[in-house]
Amino acid sequence: MQNLQISSNNNIQAPPLPLTLEQKKKKLRLLRLKRIIRARNSFWEFQKVINPTAFQEEYTYLIILALCLQSFYTDEPVEHLSSVNIDHHKRLDLEGGSIDVEMTEEGEGTRFKVDLSHTDILIIECPPRHKKSYSLINFEDWILGRQSDQIIITCAHNVKIANRMSQFVRDGIDGTRLDPFQIVYSDIFPNTVLKHGQKAKEEWAIEGQHISYVSGGVMSGVTSMGGNLIIFDDLIKGALEAFNENHLNKVWDSYTGTWLSRLEKPRKQILVMTPWAIGDPGDMIQKGADESGEMVKTLNLK
Phi-psi region for residue 120, left (φ > 0), alpha (ψ -120 to 50) or beta? Predict the structure, then answer.
């Protein structure tokens, strides 16, 4: 026997009819489209779609990292409403950095606000195994999806690591669907595809562009190439190099003499590193930027 509902005006109402198969399919298509649109506009939502296991609302530091990267690149404030309560997110210690991350309680969740407008250099100080390199790979994919005319240069402490990162970015754009319900890169950015015949690890292009991505080791450099964004990912391999003054001087000379000459307007630099000591690249870049009048912001994740 069908249950009846009585409304406040004492009218007897029948419960809503169950959705038909076609109505369910339409609802699923609309939900899928909503996720795709959100992924285009929000880097954090993009990461959640690409890998929902690795990027979850409980991971406060990954949310903040994603918001900082997006705000830095787009030159505008970024907000995100997390479904996780503020007591959980407030446990993250951001002391030591120069970025103001605003967290406010909203319903049962937390609203994040980050503003890195007009920032020239973003320094991300983070210990190993925090998914910082993985986030950077996704970030570069997201940038090229939104603006395929951008040229990105990636530099690491050696060529092998830089080329590996280049390969992961390239493979992310060229990703294949493993099941019919999966949302892949081509669903989010259908107009960004790899240029046929230009898929080398160290240098490749998006269709319609001469060059889109270049990678190299800090000591090797790149020639005859310029980019709008340079990402320096772990220029120091470990403690042995970090406390070697001669090595640090070589890295600094390569950074100032070779890599900075590759930057074209609009100039943007991201330095991701494990902080080692006074005199390491992060410390030297901070001092040099202060002298040149460039705006530097530091995100410090313990």
Answer: alpha
Q: For 196-247, what is each residue's pLDDT tens digit?
A: 877 677 889 999 998 899 888 887 767 667 788 888 887 777 677 767 778 7
Tokens describing residue 76: 């505008």
3-state secondary structure 226-269: CEEEEEEECCCCCHHHHCCHHHHHHHHHHHHHHHHHHEEEEEEE
Predicted pLDDT at 97: 80
Q: Nearest 5°: CA angle at 157, between 43 and 119?
A: 40
Q: Looking at residue 58, what DSSP letter applies? A: T
Count Cβ neighbours within 10 Å for each residue of 152-166 and write b for 16 or more, e otherwise: bbbbbbbbebbbbbb
What is the edge-to-edge ordering of all strands in the sheet holding 203-206?
Answer: 194-199, 203-206, 213-217, 152-156, 227-233, 263-273, 121-125, 296-300
Q: Which pairs with CB-CB distance under 8 Å and at least 24 residues apart come from 242-248?
A: 242/276, 242/277, 242/280, 243/276, 243/277, 245/279, 248/279, 248/280, 248/281, 248/284
Tens digits of residue pLDDT in 46-87: 999 999 999 999 999 999 999 999 999 999 999 999 999 999
Task: Please report, as a single letter, which amino acid is at residue 298.
Answer: T
